Predict the 3D structure of the following.
Amino acid sequence: MSDDAIHIVCPHCDSVNRVPSARPAAEARCGKCHKALFTGHPTPVSTASFDKHVQRDEVPVVVDFWAAWCGPCRAMAPVYEKAAAEFEPSLRFLKVDTEAEPGLASRYGIRGIPTLMVFKGGKPIAQQAGAMNSEMLRAWLRQNARPAMAG
């Protein structure tokens, strides 16, 4: 049996799953809750689930730091949603509400929202402040999260 597998955190129950590389990740289901590991939607996270995803997911993790009162954040939400549908399972998409999780915003020095960050291996590798349209976001993702993305 091959040990060629990647670890993916379930967006529903936060369990870490081993997904064999030979299997399509888009079809993978959680071994604990049996729900899809990739939903095509960004996952809202708390500090605890954020840390687990960033540290244990073996695909790059894209995080949108936002707040409900922020007009540019609300304007960019559908663009981010569309990107999640397009780029999963090559990337994991998370949303951090900076009002509910101010410690995360402080930890990463978030000064303006929306701010996007890409994490790989638990470390931030790219950051971009300000709303982006679909074309800008796609280009930014391709440039900054390329190592694990197909195409």
Observations:
- Residues 147-151 have pLDDT under 50 and may be disordered.
